[in-house]
Amino acid sequence: MDRKGKPEWFHKTQAIEKAGRLLREAMQATDTTLLSATTLVPIPPSKVKSDPGYDDRLMGILHSLAQGLRADIRELVVQRKSMQPAHGTTTRPKLQELISNYAIDEKLVQPKPRAIAIVDDVLTSGAHYKAMQHTLHVRFPDVPVFGIFIARRTPDTSDI
Asked: Is CATH 3.40.50 the right assignment for the domain spanning 9-159?
């Protein structure tokens, strides 16, 4: 994603770092061994890496989460082609479309994950998660796969 000349990027960077810190704190409070035993896999953004609109904020969140820790972060699932973003539209991709567009990056499969956490910062219908889960189960049928979702919102203070 082209960040040059965009003054709002400073605030986005701060939000990415904060989300990573909060996620780390929540995960460590729940289970101190979770990070060391789990491969963290972000849901791919709507654009492929070669697209100028590619958005790596989930990787930024995961790198912030892992700062100073030993964490296994891998973009195991990639898209074959860019898609329309699912947010802000009524036309969302169907589960089968997503499954057909997802592929495993075979360069990243070793070492074999012991457990996989699919990470996303927006959960609307769950289709991206289910497509990722399917794709990962086909490649790693004996590895447990679960989801971690970051819920964020800007509160409406006019009611307070």
From this structure: yes
For 136-153, how does the pLDDT look when each residue is reduced to its tens digit (9 = 90+)? 999 999 999 999 887 766
**C-alpha to C-alpha distance for 3 and 36, rounded to whole angstroms:** 32
Long-range (24+ apart) CB contacts under 8 A made by 10-13 are 12/57, 13/60
Where are the chain's structural domains? 9-159
Q: How many other C-beta atoms can be found within 10 angstroms of the C-beta atom of residue 25?
A: 11
DSSP H or E run through 57? helix 57-66
Structure tokens at 96: 């089968």
Structural contact between residues 42 and 84, judged by C-beta atoms closer than 8 angstroms: no
pLDDT tens digits, 45-59:
989 989 988 888 889
- Determine the Cα–Cα distance for residues 69 and 55; give it in Å rounded to an integer: 24
CA neighbours closer than 13 Å in the CB half-sphere of residue 3:
10
pTM for the model: 0.80
What would the DSSP string read from start to end of 65-126?
Answer: HHTTS--EE---EEESS----STT-S-PPPHHHHHHHEEE-GGG--SPPSSEEEEES--SSS
Compute the distance between CA of residue 123 and CA of residue 5 in angstroms, rounded to an integer: 30
